[in-house]
Amino acid sequence: MKQTPGTPRKIFTILNVIAVIVGIVIGIGIFRLPPIVAQNASSGWEFILFWVAGGGLSILGALCYAELATSHPDAGGEYHFLKKAYGPALSFLFSWGRMTVIQTGSIALAGFILGDYASSFLELGPYSSSVYAAVAVVVLTALNIWGTRPSKRAQNAMAGVVVSMLLLLGLLGVTIGTPLPEASSGGTASGDGSAGLAMIFVLLTYGGWNEAAYLSGELRNVRRNMVKVLVTGILLITALYVLINLAYLQVLGLDGLRAADTVGIALADQVLGTGSGYFVGAIIILAALSTANATIITGARTNYALGRDFAPLGILGIWNRPTDTPRNALLVQGGIALLLVLLGAFTEEAVSTMVDYTAPVFWFFLMVTTLSLFVFRYRGDPPSPPYRVPGYPVTPVLFAATCAYLLWSSLTVTGYGALYGAGILLLGIPVYWWVRR
Fold first, then answer.
1. Cα-Cα-Cα-Cα dihedral sign, residues 173, 178, 183, 185
2. What is the pTM of this model?
3. From CA 223, how far away is CA 386, in angstroms rounded?
4. Would you say 117 and 281 are in contact if contact means Cβ atoms under 8 Å apart?
5. Bridge-partner residues for 12, per DSSP?
6. CA-based, 20 to 30 A from 275: which of 68, 86, 111, 333?
7. Is 12 helix (H, G, I), strand (E, B) or coil?
8. How far apart are CA 277 and CA 262, in angstroms?
9. Is residue 189 pLDDT above 50, yes or no?
10. Is the torsion defined by CA of 295, 301, 302, 303 positive or negative?
11. 170 SS3 class
């Protein structure tokens, strides 16, 4: 079928974009990271305060992004902001990083998480997780090539089910959950934990809300709706995170939570009966599918913008109008994600390797994008922004400082995966020189 060149149309509603944000943010983190956060909390209230603070810091970033997205709406999202603020070199490097590290690594990560839990239902051999991950990448990429409308409908459904299941689990835990015997000791808070370390893992769990910027070129009434999308999405996620962590505290206590390996299963066993770990497994598998699909939707938009702006990569910049998809950008993204799945199959800890691979690059560009707000304000571009971030310049300074701290932390606590990610990013420099020539 011959592709029809075109441009993105305004087909995303507020609900569609919120579903994408929820799908990207809510994943395995809420079932794995609370024990680490608890180990760095001196009391149950401080533990909950960390999660509230994570939501608050994310809203600071969302307010900054709302001004950027409403003033400069484009399918390229952050790529477009960086290009207008700093020029083509940095924006190209960012897009290269998303195509080879951030988005494709995140897709592979979601695939491996799905594979780990799906293998507990049906083992497919020594490379079972990798097989499931590869199948997920192929199927979801095909869904998006089929069309943006079916992919966003699937996203709405998956995000809705995940939110409903988490809400049910959290409400049951808070209302009828009874403390386990080992949770009744009252806890012996040592006070030796690090609030900074706790916030690293909290904000890692909140990561991904910025992906809404990539749908600014397709969101209806973007100048009015982008703020609603970002703030509503983060408030919903914060409420769910606080609720589920209150349920963890109710059932396990702070000491029990610190020592727990599978907090989700422990909570489900207590409120739904022993052996209900399959319920948690189903939530995680669906959350991983939702995360992968949402990441595929937004990641391909950057590749499209790259091909649109650089002629040697023009094959990526074709927008298929009948299906409202950047088909070639999706195919390239899917191919790279499959390659990362293949490489991950031969590492001992594929999930942690993918986290290490993506984190430093992600936080660096989130910081630089936030700082672009100062560039636009200095230039007066646009002269009258349709939305201005409240508390300027304190709001963007606080969020940029948070990103800088998380960048430093991700470089110091991660393994070789971080070096691989940084190395692949730097390979984009000679590629840029070649493209410019």
1. positive
2. 0.84
3. 6
4. yes
5. 219
6. 111
7. strand
8. 9
9. no
10. positive
11. helix
